[in-house]
Design goal:
heterodimer, A: alpha/beta, D-Maltodextrin-Binding Protein, domain 2, 4-stranded mixed beta sheet, two-stranded antiparallel sheet, B: alpha/beta, Rossmann fold, 14 strands, about 30% helix
């Protein structure tokens, strides 16, 4: 046992000290933070430039002042200007583009053109479309000669969002959010996939390195092959764990720093800040929905989402995640180790990688499908079958899974995991001492039955 | 008493027989040569001794007791294909292997310093393996093998990659280890070093033992009644009924004559005859070299 810890230590220390590890560990959270903070920022501001847009209508002023100015676009209504003339000069006159509205618009909605030198941002287009659509609808309604139309319009303006409530067997009612469950399912599925692949592949490379450099013969004259294999698998798992913990910590730190520095100037900070204040000041404000809804519907939405997230069965999720991560990782890592032992160099691994990759990819695809329909039978079976269950079950859990299903899936997983490790150890033991022979599946099957 | 014994060891890989009923018995403090052409089964036997693989049948004994998994602690193995982690510093690497053999870190450190100084590679402690010459790597590997002071040492081609100077250093270290009580199994193709170092040998070919015994005995067995006679100055003699002259030549004012006895004849009688021809400097049985024996045995089997 003591020797396994020596092996684990070497596998761990030699990897953690590598430059590539240090760089990745520091860089990845920065990139993640940049993504988390800058992406919404970019999406809100589009390209951030202030745009002046000339609006020209042919022989009418139906839409004058309909499109409201926003903080990065101003609409200048030009009369007595012909599009043909302005087309040539609009850039020199300081316009970003020309919005041309033909008089036929009310009847043929396609009769709008935005002429510009650059591809206009989607936000701008949506803004224009929305404003015009509303106006056209209003004008069409006007033609029915309804009294007090403006008042009626204000009255019927509604926002709809569905509140999903799930009743479990004990009859207690929980407000759930499909959005949150989907996000969780997606994150867990992807995380498992990455962990298994990145670190499983590292195990394989490590085995190949030891085999090609012939270190393996020196080591297994001191320890058993199984000890070496397990030491390596555990050591690399610890490397992965270390990296993830640092990533989580650094990402959170970086997000906080970026948010306070970059977002300070822009409006959305105010919302986020007030939201967080609200959340911190207690549930009362969240409970007083009518009040908050009046003040800021967005705020109520966010606090509701927060509430929903807390409603997830976190204890179960964490236990399952740890269980499926450990067993799933060991299952795949041992297969990767066996493959590494059977080949002489990395290029030869291709033929063996495919059958290993397929269940993982399949699992990921089923996991995504699970988000659309958590109760489908494909999801059910894939969450039972051990090769796919770590990913698919994790995707199902946020939607609620009966305990017996989790239990069956776990037992199946445990049995298979032990079987795979045992088989992989046998293949590994023979494989690491075989050189210069192209290994086939048949050959590996034979190794399974070699004694000692 | 034999320190290590293998009895009737058989090992099969698939359809291929790697060892067929092979037995060896290695006396204590002996240097035991394991010889044989490529693919004869030497490496398989060595792996079985190291418990890297197990035999299909047969028994192994260390110090008269059955070989146990824990016995790897008292065995040191230098594989033919040297293996070190290329990206690891050699000091750390040596420490790692020493700990795998059960040494504590502190003890391993102490011994490593001693050996690194002794073999004059202490300055390279912090260098990565890929920066070292092949000979230097070999020295590190040698140290790793002997560091835990094993009772049984197994060297598979220990001299390849060394220049004559370093070959000599390592040779002396091996002899020194034997003096201090180690028993050594030594696999090589280099027959000169077999004559120089080995007390006993086993010759394996195609999975079977075909020659076994002490080096001296084997050589005199194969000495086909031939003698080398050396005279001072220019001397020529002719064959008679008792002996035939195979060849004679002059070298540095000496005459060297290879003669073959015709029957079981007393060498004193011959000396009395030939000493009349000139001043005899030496008269020795012309032992065939291990190289000759090796080639003759293997060729005879084919």
């Amino acid at each position: 046992m003591n020797k396994i810890s020596v092996i684990i230590k070497r596998e761990y220390v030699s990897r953690v000290r590598k430059k590539s590890f240090i760089i990745m560990t520091i860089l990845a959270p920065l990139l993640m933070a940049a993504l988390v903070v800058l992406l919404p920022l970019l999406m809100m501001n589009e390209d951030g430039d202030f745009k002046k847009i000339a609006v020209i209508e042919d022989n009418s002023d139906l839409f004058k002042g309909v499109i409201k100015n926003t903080k990065d676009a101003e609409y200048v209504y030009l009369e007595n200007t012909r599009v043909e003339d302005l087309k040539k000069t609009f850039e020199n006159e300081g316009y970003y583009g020309i919005l041309y509205i033909s008089p036929e618009l009310v009847n043929t909605p396609n009769a709008i053109q935005l002429i510009s030198k650059k591809q206009p941002p989607i936000g701008l287009l949506q803004d224009i479309e929305r404003s015009l659509k509303k106006e056209i609808e209003r004008q069409k309604l006007l033609s029915y000669k309804i009294d007090n139309l403006d008042e009626i319009m204000k009255n019927i303006e509604t926002n709809v969002s569905i509140q999903t409530i799930k009743i479990d067997e004990s009859g207690s009612v929980k407000e759930t959010s499909t959005g949150i469950a989907m996000a969780l399912a997606y994150i867990f599925g992807l995380l498992m996939y990455m962990l298994v692949f990145i670190f499983g592949a590292q195990v394989m490379r490590g085995v190949i390195e030891e085999k090609t450099s012939r270190v393996v013969e020196v080591i297994i004259s001191s320890v058993k092959p199984v000890q070496l294999m397990m030491g390596k698998i555990v050591g690399i798992a610890l490397v992965g764990l270390t990296q993830f913990l640092i990533w989580i910590f650094l990402t959170m730190a970086a997000v906080t720093v970026l948010k306070t520095t970059i977002l300070q100037k822009s409006e959305p900070t105010e919302i986020t800040q007030s939201v967080s204040q609200n959340l911190m000041s207690g549930d009362q404000q969240v409970a007083g929905t009518t009040q908050t809804a009046d003040i800021s519907p967005q705020l109520a939405e966010i606090s509701k989402m927060f509430d929903n997230a807390m409603n997830q069965p976190w204890g179960l999720i964490i236990i399952c995640f740890i269980f499926y991560f450990i067993t799933g990782y060991f299952l795949y890592a041992s297969v990767f180790a066996a493959i590494g032992s059977a080949v002489d160099n990395e290029t030869e691994t291709q033929q063996f990688m495919l059958p290993v990759t397929i269940p993982i990819i399949l699992a990921l695809m089923v996991a995504i499908a699970t988000m659309q329909n958590p109760e489908s039978s494909v999801s059910f079976w894939c969450s039972m079958i051990p090769l796919t269950s770590p990913i698919v079950m994790m995707a199902r859990i946020p939607f609620g899974v009966p305990y017996w299903q989790i239990a069956v899936s776990m037992v199946l997983m445990l049995v298979t995991f032990m079987g795979f490790v045992w088989m992989a150890a046998k293949v590994y033991r023979t494989g690491i001492l075989m050189y210069g022979k192209k290994t086939s599946w048949k050959e590996m099957w034979k190794w399974l039955r070699y004694s000692g | 008493m034999a320190l290590f014994e293998a009895k009737n060891v058989t090992k099969q890989y698939g359809n291929q027989l790697a060892l067929d009923n092979v037995s060896i018995s290695v006396p204590e403090q002996c240097i035991y040569g394991l010889l044989g052409p490529n693919g004869a089964g030497k490496t398989t036997l060595i792996r079985i001794i190291n418990q890297i693989t197990g035999p299909d049948s047969g028994e192994l004994f260390l110090n008269g007791k059955k070989l146990m998994p824990d016995d790897v602690q008292v065995i040191g193995y230098l594989p033919e294909e040297r293996g070190l982690y290329k990206k690891m510093k050699i000091g750390e690497q040596a420490l790692y292997f020493a700990q795998l053999k059960g040494l504590s870190r502190a003890e391993a450190m102490k011994r490593l310093k001693y050996w690194f100084k002794k073999l004059d590679i202490i300055d390279w402690w912090g260098k990565k393996v890929e920066e070292l010459s092949k000979g230097m790597q070999q020295k590190v590997q040698f140290i790793i093998t002997v560091l835990h002071e094993p009772k049984l040492l197994i060297f598979d081609e220990p001299f390849t990659g060394f220049d004559p100077l370093n070959t000599n250093i390592v040779k002396n270290e091996i002899l020194f280890l034997r003096e201090r009580g180690a028993t050594i199994i030594f696999s090589t193709h280099n027959m000169e070093s077999v004559e120089e170092l080995c007390d006993n040998i086993t010759l394996i070919d195609k999975a079977k033992t075909i020659l076994e015994g002490s080096v001296d005995e084997i050589r005199s067995q194969w000495a086909a009644n031939e003698y080398d006679l050396v005279f001072d100055g220019d001397v020529k003699i002719e064959g008679n009924g008792q002996y035939n002259i195979l060849n004679q030549h002059k070298d540095n004012n000496k005459s060297i004559i290879r003669m073959k006895m015709t029957g079981n004849i007393n060498t004193n009688d011959i000396l009395q005859t030939v000493m009349k021809s000139g001043n005899i400097i030496s008269f020795n049985p012309a032992l065939p070299s291990m190289n000759e024996i090796f080639i003759r045995v293997i060729e005879a089997r084919n």
